[in-house]
Specification:
Number of strands: 20
Largest sheet: 9 strands, mixed
Shape: globular
Strand content: 25-35%
Radius of gyration: 21 Å
Structural class: alpha+beta
């Protein structure tokens, strides 16, 4: 006999796990994961921060709405952030500060003298920046495990090593098949990250252009050792960022290299570019390149996430395209998506969110 569910969510990374936790008190939920463990891909490779300006003004409402949940749950630790620029970037930094201050972000302009007191060894060219003191590190593993455990307590059934190979409308619902198993569900949720467009095709839905882009991070041992209170530091032109982690420096060239849905691996060239860019920012010696990794960040064409029912395929719900901001927006995104999916009332976390910004209908014209 085939198990039947109200909701089947494909993908058990942060997106799928958080949505399962929000849905499970109200519906019988199946969470289907292709890998041996949930969170193997993008969730497990995150640089792990909550930063209100990250992702732009269209992402800010989701990030801000998620902050209280993350803080109250103990998932945040103080970090602070900077966006730094050279003399020719001053107007860009000033516009950045004005844009986000108007939204209510705690952000201010800082000059060279203050920057050198915050970032030791900062080279002379870097003379202006923005400071976002409320930026925090996120304990991604703890947050992900919280959602998995919460959904399990309220009845979610998790299937791992279950790469979906068949999807078919079955009466008023869906039939799912994977090697060694199958299930039925009234509603089907696409939380497949980099695989989202491919999964949509399997379900008979049109791809939305959700593209996986590779992001590289290297862990360096440096002299001096990064101060533990060093802020997360971005280039205002989005060409690098770095942060301290356990006495080491995590460094990224802020790359967005088009890729395919797969187990992403770092390219030597991207690591070399990151180190070269660092050499123009910090007067530090690199003693060792200790680790390197890459993950896929999946973006819709307008770089906003996609939450909502497909206008053309009954019972098919998108929860994808969450780029590099899916961790920091997870609480509000999952709450909003569960409300849209199950017809639940808005609450204090989501009442100010405009769901039309994120609807898949914006790509289909329906």
């Amino acid at each position: 006999m085939t198990d039947s569910f109200d909701v089947a969510i494909i993908g058990a990374g942060m997106a799928g796990a958080s949505l399962a936790a929000e849905c499970a008190p109200h519906a019988r939920v199946l969470l289907v994961e292709a890998e041996d463990v949930p969170g193997y891909h993008t969730t497990g490779r995150s640089a792990a921060f909550w930063e209100e300006t990250y992702g732009g003004t269209g992402i800010y409402p989701l990030t801000a709405a998620s902050g209280r949940f993350l803080q109250d749950g103990g998932y945040l630790a103080p970090r602070g952030a900077l966006n730094i620029g050279q003399a020719q970037d001053r107007a860009k930094v000033e516009a950045f500060v004005d844009r986000f201050a108007e939204l209510g972000v705690n952000v201010r302009l800082v000059g060279r003298s203050e920057l050198t007191g915050i970032v030791p060894g900062l080279k002379d060219d870097w003379v202006v920046g923005s400071s976002q003191p409320d930026c925090a590190d996120i304990d991604v593993a703890a947050l992900h495990q919280h959602y998995l455990a919460a959904s399990k307590r309220t009845g979610t059934v998790l299937r791992v090593r279950a790469r979906v190979e068949g999807l078919e409308r079955d009466g008023a619902g869906w039939r799912l098949e994977w090697r060694g198993g199958q299930a039925r569900a009234a509603l089907l949720v696409n939380a497949a990250g980099a695989w989202a467009d491919g999964l949509a095709g399997l379900a008979g839905a049109s791809a939305l252009g959700i593209a996986p882009l590779r992001r590289t991070i290297a862990q360096l041992r440096t002299d001096p050792e990064p101060p533990a209170n060093l802020p997360l530091t971005f280039g205002i032109n989005e060409d690098f960022y770095f942060k301290p982690q356990g006495g080491r420096l995590w460094l990224s060239p802020h790359d967005e290299t088009p890729d395919v849905a797969r187990d992403a691996a770092p390219e030597e060239l991207d690591v070399a570019i990151a180190i070269d860019r660092m050499s123009h920012v910090l007067d530090w010696k690199i003693e060792a390149l200790e680790r390197r990794w890459a993950g896929l960040r999946s973006f819709a064409p307008d770089r906003l996430p996609v939450y909502g029912f497909d206008p053309r395929v009954d019972g098919f719900f998108w929860f994808a395209g969450q780029g590099g901001f899916g961790i920091q927006t997870a609480p509000a995104a999952a709450r909003l998506a569960a409300q849209l999916l199950l017809g639940l009332a808005r609450d204090a976390m989501t009442e100010a969110l405009d769901a039309t910004w994120y609807s898949p209908a914006r790509f289909t014209g329906v």
